[in-house]
């Protein structure tokens, strides 16, 4: 049965004691949702799988399956293998270390006021993508006082994780 390779990024799962969901449970949720070949990547709500459904249906089905497991709805952001490849290629900060570059995945294109809403910028660099925002933290995320008011609308992954998910979605080992 043909299908598309997708990566789903769950918001607020296994972070700070909220949204506890084991990666085994996430793979099981994918099976319940009808997805095939589910593989998780690190314990922070990342899973790659195959589905013949479109992106919105994938997000809805997986969101429902996860809600059944943990008793609360979580945001599910989905990208197919090609979209992840484009996120990698569009990186506006190629000189940034992968662990200091965050990609904030959003459900829709960032609003025009996205950059003007940012506060407490020190040495951070920020750029808009198609449905992502790239944030480079030269001094590290933990030291930053950066305020991104819109970040609650999406979920962030460091560039190393994004690269690994892109490889998994492309079908690489």
TrEMBL record:
InterPro entries named among the record's database cross-references: DUF1697
Classification via Pfam families: DUF1697
The protein's name in its UniProt record: DUF1697 domain-containing protein
């Amino acid at each position: 049965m043909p299908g598309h390779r997708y990566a789903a990024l769950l918001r607020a799962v296994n972070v700070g004691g909220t949204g506890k969901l084991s990666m085994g449970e996430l793979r099981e949720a994918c099976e319940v949702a009808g997805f095939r070949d589910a593989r998780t990547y690190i314990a922070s709500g990342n899973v790659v799988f195959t589905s013949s459904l479109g992106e919105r249906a994938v997000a809805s089905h997986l969101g429902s399956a996860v809600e059944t497991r943990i008793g609360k709805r979580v945001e599910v952001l989905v990208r197919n293998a090609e979209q992840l490849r484009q996120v990698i290629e569009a990186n506006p900060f190629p000189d940034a270390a992968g662990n200091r570059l965050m990609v904030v995945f959003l459900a829709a294109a960032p609003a025009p006021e996205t950059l003007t809403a940012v506060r407490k910028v020190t040495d951070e660099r920020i750029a808009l993508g198609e449905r992502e925002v790239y944030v480079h933290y030269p001094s590290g995320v933990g030291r930053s006082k950066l305020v991104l008011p819109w970040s609650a609308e999406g979920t962030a992954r460091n560039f190393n994780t994004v690269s690994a998910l892109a490889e998994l979605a492309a079908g690489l080992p």
